[in-house]
Amino acid sequence: MGWLYMKSLKGHSGPRQYLDAQFIYERPDASSKVLRSALVGMRVYYAAVELVHIATGQREVWAAICLVRYNPRDPESYVFGYKDMEESMGPYECDCPAPILDLLTPTDREFAVQWRTRCRENIAARRAKAAKPGPRAGQMIVFDEPLCFADGRSFDQLEVIANPRSHRTVLFRAPGSGSLYRIPNIKSRTYRLVDPPPR
């Protein structure tokens, strides 16, 4: 299915609430409701959707995924757009939160199984990155491979120093020089930290 655009959220308080409503219904043969949903980065909507077949009582919980574009200031007034899909379509987006994945019932659909696996792998990678110790002033940081900087120099180790302008970030100084560097997204690098020798 392609993108659907609209000029209002039709009374809903936000994109997530609007999309939740699209998966809720009661029919003579089946009922559907959203057990849990999340709008990740205001870009991708994930939901655990429960489908119950009335005649048999059979229950299935599957994952809905919607790409989202939300711009209340759109010059043409198309403030909201979405593209919906479900897990068995093998969507590229695989940052579904664990509490939603935990609600899904088992499936033998190959693409859905692969998608759930990718989501779990991403969750594990994010947790490992969050748990990784960050560099502290006074330490040396030693990289597995030298880093190249915009000035043409490269280093495999740098001294970590306090950032005088921000207590939340650090700077990196080249050994034997006064050159200072910033390294964005430092935890995505492979490194080890060496504490200063005791005094």
Secondary-structure blueprint:
Layout: E1 4-6, H1 15-22, E2 25-26, E3 30-40, E4 44-53, E5 59-70, E6 80-86, H2 98-101, H3 110-131, E7 140-148, E8 154-162, E9 170-173, E10 180-181, E11 191-194
Antiparallel strand pairs: 1-6, 2-3, 3-4, 4-5, 5-6, 7-8, 7-11, 8-9, 9-10
Number of separate structural domains: 2
SSE order: EHEEEEEHHEEEEE
What would you call the quaternary organization?
A: single chain
Poorly predicted runs are none
Question: Major sheet: order of its strands?
Answer: 1-6-5-4-3-2
Strand content: 35-45%
The coarse overall form would be elongated
Mean pLDDT: 92
Helix content class: 10-25%
Structural class, from helix and strand content? alpha+beta
Question: How many beta strands in the DSSP annotation?
Answer: 11
Specify Rg, calculated over alpha carbons. 24 Å
The separation of the N and C termini measures 66 Å
The main sheet comes to: 6 strands, antiparallel
Number of helices: 3
Give me some keywords for this one.
199 residues, five-stranded antiparallel beta sheet, elongated, 2 domains
Please tell me about this protein's structure:
The chain is of the alpha+beta class. The chain has 2 domains: 4-131, no CATH class; 140-194, no CATH class. 17% of the residues lie in helices and 37% in strands. 19% of the residues are buried. The model has no long low-confidence stretch (mean pLDDT 92).
In short:
With 199 residues, the protein is α+β, with helices and mostly antiparallel strands.
